[in-house]
Amino acid sequence: MTKKIYEHEIDDGFEIYVLIKSADVRLAKNGKKFIAFTFQDRSGQIDGKYWDAKEEDIKQFVPGQVVVVTGKRELYQNNPQLRISKLRLAREGEPNSPELYMESAPLKSEEMVEEVSQILFEITSAPINRIVRHILKKYQVEFFEYPAAKRHHHAFVGGLGYHTVSILRLAKTVLENYPAVNRSLLYGGIILHDIGKTIELSGSMSTEYTLKGNLIGHIVLIDEEITKACGLLNIDEDNEEVILLKHIVLAHHGKMEFGSPVVPHLLEAEIIHHLDNLDASINMIDTALLRTTPGTFGERIFGLENRTFYKPKFTQPTEE
Amino acid sequence: MTKKIYEHEIDDGFEIYVLIKSADVRLAKNGKKFIAFTFQDRSGQIDGKYWDAKEEDIKQFVPGQVVVVTGKRELYQNNPQLRISKLRLAREGEPNSPELYMESAPLKSEEMVEEVSQILFEITSAPINRIVRHILKKYQVEFFEYPAAKRHHHAFVGGLGYHTVSILRLAKTVLENYPAVNRSLLYGGIILHDIGKTIELSGSMSTEYTLKGNLIGHIVLIDEEITKACGLLNIDEDNEEVILLKHIVLAHHGKMEFGSPVVPHLLEAEIIHHLDNLDASINMIDTALLRTTPGTFGERIFGLENRTFYKPKFTQPTEE
Amino acid sequence: MTKKIYEHEIDDGFEIYVLIKSADVRLAKNGKKFIAFTFQDRSGQIDGKYWDAKEEDIKQFVPGQVVVVTGKRELYQNNPQLRISKLRLAREGEPNSPELYMESAPLKSEEMVEEVSQILFEITSAPINRIVRHILKKYQVEFFEYPAAKRHHHAFVGGLGYHTVSILRLAKTVLENYPAVNRSLLYGGIILHDIGKTIELSGSMSTEYTLKGNLIGHIVLIDEEITKACGLLNIDEDNEEVILLKHIVLAHHGKMEFGSPVVPHLLEAEIIHHLDNLDASINMIDTALLRTTPGTFGERIFGLENRTFYKPKFTQPTEE
Amino acid sequence: MTKKIYEHEIDDGFEIYVLIKSADVRLAKNGKKFIAFTFQDRSGQIDGKYWDAKEEDIKQFVPGQVVVVTGKRELYQNNPQLRISKLRLAREGEPNSPELYMESAPLKSEEMVEEVSQILFEITSAPINRIVRHILKKYQVEFFEYPAAKRHHHAFVGGLGYHTVSILRLAKTVLENYPAVNRSLLYGGIILHDIGKTIELSGSMSTEYTLKGNLIGHIVLIDEEITKACGLLNIDEDNEEVILLKHIVLAHHGKMEFGSPVVPHLLEAEIIHHLDNLDASINMIDTALLRTTPGTFGERIFGLENRTFYKPKFTQPTEE
Amino acid sequence: MTKKIYEHEIDDGFEIYVLIKSADVRLAKNGKKFIAFTFQDRSGQIDGKYWDAKEEDIKQFVPGQVVVVTGKRELYQNNPQLRISKLRLAREGEPNSPELYMESAPLKSEEMVEEVSQILFEITSAPINRIVRHILKKYQVEFFEYPAAKRHHHAFVGGLGYHTVSILRLAKTVLENYPAVNRSLLYGGIILHDIGKTIELSGSMSTEYTLKGNLIGHIVLIDEEITKACGLLNIDEDNEEVILLKHIVLAHHGKMEFGSPVVPHLLEAEIIHHLDNLDASINMIDTALLRTTPGTFGERIFGLENRTFYKPKFTQPTEE
Amino acid sequence: MTKKIYEHEIDDGFEIYVLIKSADVRLAKNGKKFIAFTFQDRSGQIDGKYWDAKEEDIKQFVPGQVVVVTGKRELYQNNPQLRISKLRLAREGEPNSPELYMESAPLKSEEMVEEVSQILFEITSAPINRIVRHILKKYQVEFFEYPAAKRHHHAFVGGLGYHTVSILRLAKTVLENYPAVNRSLLYGGIILHDIGKTIELSGSMSTEYTLKGNLIGHIVLIDEEITKACGLLNIDEDNEEVILLKHIVLAHHGKMEFGSPVVPHLLEAEIIHHLDNLDASINMIDTALLRTTPGTFGERIFGLENRTFYKPKFTQPTEE
């Protein structure tokens, strides 16, 4: 009973503890209600439908509850799916704390804080350093707790911070290899580029877009934060470093059609756009391959033009 | 000698007073320098090249100077062009004040101020009213003096204000015909939608993009102004009216590929996008047709997918 | 029992009179037939499924019948839906006249006729005036009765005429503000631009595309009508005014990829394209917002790139 | 002196008779006028500039004149160009009849008429046969004399008829191989598909677009002709065969963005679109390769996405 | 009992022998399994669902089995569908050989071999002739047995060879009409252009993409075959004819976005691209029209931008 | 006289040794010939025109010659340009060896060989290791000498090898941070991804595309090399590792419209696509910024959608 969702073989029956991540009540073709669940534990997420849901089911089986599912894992058109035969809430004395089931970043929050803090010392531009520290302090809790996206990539607790840390690591190599790159702009830009998601998204559970997220978007929201920081810290907005930092965050989606109001016109803006894409792509593919059988193609990945990825059968020899 | 550029017939010789709008020094194929001028008077603008320019020519014939040109107007591949045979600065006693030659809005600055002020009374939402008044006051001088664009539409003194006033007039009819439209959002959004151009552009003469204009852009610049206004006026940024006003200015280009970081998700945002387009299109076509012979097609209009427009021979009977 | 569909609260049970607008018989997953209805009354339209339909049900529940539905209104993935528990035909003595339930233009047919007639006097170009009167007379009944589209915008009785009248009203302001615009071309073009829909569509009930609609399309169909009118009225087809009028109707979709065989090359063609878009957009958004709860986003609008629109919570203060 | 333009080696001096196809007077950088000529003889066309043109040169060297050029053929950025050292009009007694220099279809007009006439017998649908005969008769002279385009393909005397005949020949094989294809629609559609170009273009010399060509376009112009033919011949416009014939000509550009107001929804429409493309492509490539040295790439072809085509060195062994 | 699927009227009950082409086991909304079948006989293919499938059903009703279906043919949203009421395997003594039910090319394999062989004699370029013969011999069996695509066009036994033969027939007319075309390149290119599909696809039954098909694709696979043939036949890869032959097969999809790594830069490459498209389009439309009622539009065709095609009511008079 | 091109101030006169990189003879407007040069030394490249060129000039001033230019560096529309007043060949005793002037990779050939060799030991997959070693050996000289492109990025001696080494360095960090990535595929794919350019391009001086380069392209050319290597080394082409290696090189342009016949369906293919882009982008921007004055925007970069890049005025404090 301690095995996780993706540790069970396909089509094996099981009884399993999972957390309800989302629960949509819908109408079945026969006119009865059913609940479309997304469950999760630390091995991943899985969808499952609960038929003929009664009003009390709808009331008790809500996001955030830990439940015991009797059923099995199946494949439906290449997507994993949980077939539910029985469902009940986890009781007192059972492992019913939600934290136990939430996927989270491979690094602990403290580790990420530590790693980012080290980087701050390398931002030698005074205005950039002050602005970054100010904003980071203001949103620190959310920054290391929120996912990096509602669904597409790093959609787990701490995903936003972890995505940032991953890019910072790649950036270190970039700085070594390309001496023309400005360290302050690169590090400062990376730390701030997605921090507006702490305003764009509603939180780390049942994540939704906020009104500001929908109507303003995280790209402009972080620009506004820099504007406000300048006001509070008495930094001149016409300072070249400030303008460049704003440009980097505004341009980081790389193209206007992806929501950047300006395209990159700065070396560091171009680099951050590439590193952001690279890290997000690897994470999406990694996540899909985790659930894919070697020698087959996995599920379609929306964020990568619906491409499917092949999981090789051959593995690299252990390198010791 | 008082006739203006476009009041002379094509290929007629003349001596004429005009203002130098821009003067680019370039290398001719023969290795000598020439000056590529744009001249203007109130009948429009015209390009002309001055060959074999000496250093003193380059020094004295600069933007902002009024000059006397001897030459004629010609057509080169459907574009008007001024052939210069002699060129000298206008002297004392001659009409050498630049203002006399600058195209400007059909309305005087005071008239536009008056018309916009009347509209302010109809913005009954308190936060919108206060924000709009605050920003308008801050940029009032530039707003009624700057052009609406460096080149494409309303590229004349006062063009920015005049473009805004024109849209406000159309908006009045929209409000009458579609009762669901919110007056405060519509009027407030129109007044602010392009006011960031006072920061994006360098001024009303020899207009260029500023660094902020190039790297941040007028769409985000006005969003920043609203953010700062909220801070100064103690208006809560989470106020729905504020979020909607920001959304309108951010979305007014209608599509991401035209530089809006978000697309319209609000009735008033959609309407302003349309009215802005309509007024800019009419102005560009009007300007081109002014220089077009009836019964022919005019010059290509860059801002309208390089289309050319036909100027009919038939005119509508005078309607009295 | 006199409340309309959208006057009932979501999830409240009711018994209600509605008109069957369309009725598609389909196969359910269980192999039995069901009817996918679209019902309507003057508060709007709603879809609903009738399960396990017997042959007699299929025969009697057809478009144009008024029925009594017992059931309730629900939300299914943000779209309103009618859950049917009982269904029967309205009887003698009950309000069973279809007209009572059909959405229709806010103006009566006579009012629209009157308004358009006034405009005709302002078309001072003789050939345009004669052509417009001729075609208007030929299709007058359909013009003021048909919808402006099968589904997307102004999809109600009289929608085609109402859409035209709305644009004419906007055009009046355009003529006041932009003196270069030709009144005869603008008004004539607007009245004719969509009148080919009277041939493209099958009628005002259960509207479908005709064979000519599918294979020729309303844009070319109206061009053909002008051609025929010239023949009957002895107007020279090489007359500039006739060519321009044809151009306007051919170009009114603005871009080739939207079905215009030529793009606008005439000021009036460009303007009509914009006004057409503006009026259609407002109508689509208005219709969607009618069914949207304040503070939320409405259904996706196909004709506007599937965007959703936000309905603000704040309302403008009553202005008296 | 009887060699043609492209029979001379590159860089060899010559004296040669050619026809002036077009002559644009332009301003040189040095302020003097020059004439940008396009000359032609039966080996092809070539551009050449005539510097320091005097007023009398401009008056006498006009399109339609045969001239004697002393000069040589050169290559400028892969494009052939004629360097003019002397230029005079051809005199009495010299070969000064324009017809001697105009490129023309490989078939004589009578041969084409004959070939098309044979095809008419195979159009067994009465309405299609009558409409095609009627229009063909109305525009017969122009049809076999005009080019198929101002510049892109079959831009020679008789090109329009020849393009049509070429497609008819391909169509014959299509009919043999695909029995489901309707002979009357296929042949009728091909004969009419481009005949609107007799109205769209100004003639076979110095070909320009007419006002109708620019503002209505040959696709709709031929639809209008069918409409008028139906009126004159008392053919019901609601006849399915008429609707399909119209659809074919309207859809023959294949995609809306290429100017078809409807896309093909009929087997024969789809086929004609393909055959039209195929024949035009072959003609454009053939023309370019004629001027290309074996083993190199020729000039960019505008109508084929600016691609260049390779002319192989190897030739196929004579097959006898 | 000898009538085929599409020889029965819609909604008529029948008992019929068909072959199972594919059989996907899926989960129904009620949690039970069902089988989504595609059946076929020589009149075409049809989908049908078998509800509440037991494990033994799943085991026995697999692709390649002939079965007896009791049921009827229905229309579901314009697509034909088979409603199954009873299903059993065909027994000994019944017509249970799969070949009897497989759609196949209108020509027998031997006829196609013969027709292609005749063409080989006309390929007079020695290297092209040797390469084509070599590859044809290597893949001969598969070439005349495989479909031309998994689903889109010529998706029947022998479809690949038949598609090739059809294009060769069109090519014959092209060679007659356009003398500049090189016979060896045209014929050699056509024969090889799609032969890589014998490696890309898994076979003629239950056709799937192979790993090489998915990750390398038939366009590059045939290029590799030419490379290997050169090695084995001692043909110099730098031979111009070899390079051109490779270019043709690489460029035959016409545009990069359709998977050609190079676009056509050779007359014969351009022609083959057009003929390939033409033949595939006709086949797709033909197949759809076979199942369409005259006077209506058929199913959407994925390979033709989801267009639907109209089947005319009028037929051409028998021509004798 | 030892200063390099870009070490001189703009508009300062100088006498300078440079290498002729390319020399195009063209016709001036006045009918005389001129030579359009590209010169280079180790500080960069610059264009310059030599007017009124005589035949002997044309003969002696050819690519590969070292010349002495008297003149000055100027700016023409933001692009650097060399104004030539005198030109002669460098003589014996002067520094006339071309190598002295060719831009080259910051690493020596031996260093790159060494760095790549170290990587080879980490490719533990036997077939990949053998294929990579085989191809590397075959093209080793060219690989470390050729540019990575004719013009766009790393267009200098050794650029191809240096581009590869730069990506390998980035890849090392990727392998550390993302444990799921396969080392053999990543390193093998990077080394081979562009090696086909040794066949696609003509060499390191006056680089042009070869016929194979134009008609087959480096992406397919390297796939052919792998195919041939498998034949020679007796490696099964159906080996999964071989298929994946081929897929990586075929997919490395990321999208079909950029010339990849397949899009990435493998984690390592996706990563290499990103790293390739990142390194090329940085190199293009770096090169442009070298010639840009701080506080201004540089020249348009063709390979980056014609964007211009800003060179900041502020520099990062020396970090010691």
Automatic annotation (TrEMBL), chains A, B, C, D, E, F:
Boundaries of every HD domain copy: 162-280
Pfam assignment, any one: HD
OB domain sequence ranges: 26-89
UniProt keyword terms in alphabetical order: Exonuclease, Hydrolase, Nuclease
One Gene Ontology term of the molecular function aspect: exonuclease activity
Gene Ontology biological process: rRNA 3'-end processing
Record-given protein name: HD domain-containing protein
